[in-house]
Amino acid sequence: MTMKLTERRKLGNTGYLVSPVAFGGIVTMSETQADADRFVASAVDSGINYFDVAPSYGNAEDRLGPALEPYRKEVYLACKTEFRDAKRAEQELHASLRKLRTDHFDVYQMHALSTREDIDVAFGPGGVMELMRRAKEEGIIRKIGFSTHSEDAAMQALELFDFDTVLFPMNWALGVNTGWGDRISAYAASHGTGLLAMKTLAHRKWREEDPRLHPKGWYKPVYESEKLGVAAMKYGLYKGAATLVSPGNFERFRFMLEHIEECLSEPLSEEEWALLRAEASAVRGEMIFNP
Q1: Separation between Cα atoms, residue 186 and residue 189, nearest integer Å
Q2: How far apart are CA 135 and CA 137, in angstroms?
Q3: What does pTM read for this prediction?
């Protein structure tokens, strides 16, 4: 693996000091319990202290819970709900607590906010925000966040509540080609919102002829070019992310671990910016989203 990471970064105003790489729970999805145990133990031994999962990630909660149980007091654990109403979200919250063998989540997030309707329901009477506020008062959740693939939805939500964290795709191709993520980056920096970056190693949409070396992913990750992968990670840090959430396969998680210290010590060079611009132009018609 790699030497143990000792670097810790401030997650906005949460008071949390997190590892610069986070363990994405999809890594454990569809794996044996023995492999999930091995992956998690390896991550903790390597200095990872932030784990993120969701009920929608297949059986990831079932695998991650037992694997993480021996280390639960040493790490931050984040989970999510896609329900926008309080009643169903509460049922899902308690199911996640049971599966993950914990009595609280350090971060609990509205998952995949997409539309204005999503936000209106979540913040309306009987919406999930009622549950989140109550659960925080009860200590079941410690910090409130959300994840989204929509920058417009993110900005709308941030106008309505002082969220502790936002999990957002800080993807180099989208950023270079369209300015995607610039508003979120600026808001997080000025308001002390903890920025968690996902999709930093996303390359482009799968092509029909591509060998599916990473079948869990709905997009093709960067894996042929070490230089592009490192530059992609540096881009996420450049945008202000406290931590980079790994893709859903252990090999790419290992790649992040093996290169994060280089990324932290050496900001994006002109050569790396040129590489990102050239590759972003090459995949302009195949970006993972169409903003």
Answers
A1: 5
A2: 5
A3: 0.97
